[in-house]
Amino acid sequence: GNGAQVPALVIGTGYGGAVAALRLAQAGVPVEMIEMGMTWDTPGSDGKIFPKVTSPDKRAYWLRTKTKAPVSNFFGFPIDSNIERYTGVLDAEEFAGITVYQGRGVGGGSLVNGGMAVTPKQSRFASILPSVDAAEMYATYYPRANAGLGVGSIDPTWFESAACYQYARVGRKHAQRSGFAWTFVPDVYDWNYMKAEQAGTVTRSALDGQVMYGNDHGKKSLVQTYLAQALATGRVNVSPLHKVTSVAPVPGGSGYTVTIDQLNTSGDTVATKTVTAAKVFFAAGSVGTSKLLVRLKATGVLPNLNAEIGKGWGDNGNVMCGRANHMWDPTGELQSTIPCSGIDNWDAGGAFAEVAPLPTGIETYASLYLSITRTTRRAEFSWNPSTGKVDLSWQTAWKQDSINMAKTIFDKINSKEGTIYRTDLFGGYKIWQDGLTYHPLGGAVINKATDNYGRLHGYDGLYVIDGALIPGNTTVNPFVTITALAERNIDNILANDV
Ligand code: FAD
After folding, report:
1. Active site includes 439?
2. CA-to-CA distance for 128 and 63, rounded, in angstroms?
3. Of 83, 172, 189, 257, which one's alpha carbon is 20 to 30 angstroms from that of 337?
4. How far, in Å, is the centroid of ligand 1 from the Cα of 449?
5. What residues does the Glucose-methanol-choline oxidoreductase N-terminal domain cover (predicted)?
6. pLDDT digits (tens, 9 = 90+) for 241-284
7. How far is the CA of 479 from the centre of ligand 1 (A)?
8. ipTM over 0.95
9. Distance of CA 495 to the CA centre of its chain
């Protein structure tokens, strides 16, 4: 409540925030979690909590009046539609050179993501987090994160026959015929539930076009894992539809005054509250944490933050493309929205490509891919006093690096198969979706803006514990690494600061 004093306040309820809250609470520390998005536990008039990816409504988007789907066109026709402005679950946040997709709600990105839970190869870890002890991460913290998240693997025998993964089997065939390493990708989706969906014995979610705007069933989001455990301690309180706007040192005292706007579902501020916290954990995601810190430093609220604040931001090299298959390679009318496989050409070509679904319900003869690439481009957040907003210096043209790396896979497959790229999926005859990322990383990089465990330089009791710590790339999908790093850092913080 307004005016409260709390030992620990966590901004955001995504991976970093959920780990921090659970481990603090287990150590006996009461935790207040502040989340700008809604709690997603109540079905709408259609009986569903979340809309399908093919029919987004107001629940799908964070305060937009028109949808902004990553696959924006189909057979050349634009598919975005008008919706009511609402505090929906997916934010398509637009900066000058890139749209950054992020989850909004209790559970953060875990509500909207595909659940792909990938531990990077240890040999590549030094390129991800050079200051972090890799041996300790792989012995202790990656296993802890995988267990806590409920990561599982697809039954390889079932995969061979499941209708919903025909698109992935076609993807494998094409990858292998071109000599690429193909691999299953673990996921937090309940694979037994998916088997039952395919068998027709349970209510479908992944097999009913749900992903990106949420899954009613099957996916173990943080709500079912870390956050459930955190709430079960009895020491954690979550305030949804509350947005942190300021964190300021208590004048002449200790701790921080946190200013919070309470929102309604139209996004209007209906009340402003302050809470005093001894410790504040920034877990608002790479963009959310960076925006707060950059503004608070530039406007003199937290002037002692160092010059690394806002730097080291990257897009994890995300780029999408589609290929047009021959008529003898149908990808299936029924497609699981949960990708289960990838093509690994990282060492030779700098790309790891997920074989992605196109769950339209009709045969498309299309193969869709999301590539993660080894781009070295890094952007910076900065405060713009004339607009009162935080800008990001990313340039769309930088994606050419990622396109070139992804082409090391798909040019070869197209040449081997005698196929071409689809030009009807992203508007304007574009082959490459080069305007977005799902994987924002960096902006308050570990061992630069913070110490080697996320303690912000300049202020005792302020911590970063989310994707902002990771400098721009994880070589694979990021949330397992974000979770494992948070587990490592909170261990050190509990041992030394609490
Ligand atoms: P987040 O999970 O983004 O959580 C931050 C939270 O803070 C949010 O809930 C936000 O609403 C809240 N917040 C922000 N600002 C404030 C504020 N000022 N006050 C209060 N609350 C605030 N990754 C994978 O590894 N595998 C995948 O399959 C995958 N698929 C994805 C698909 C989509 C469509 C998207 C968008 C992302 C996907 N990702 C995937 C990425 C993954 O979800 C993110 O990397 C991850 O969620 C980041 O975790 P985080 O803890 O840094 O922050």
Report:
1. yes
2. 33
3. 83
4. 20
5. 98-295
6. 999 999 999 998 899 999 999 999 999 999 999 999 999 999 99
7. 8
8. yes
9. 29
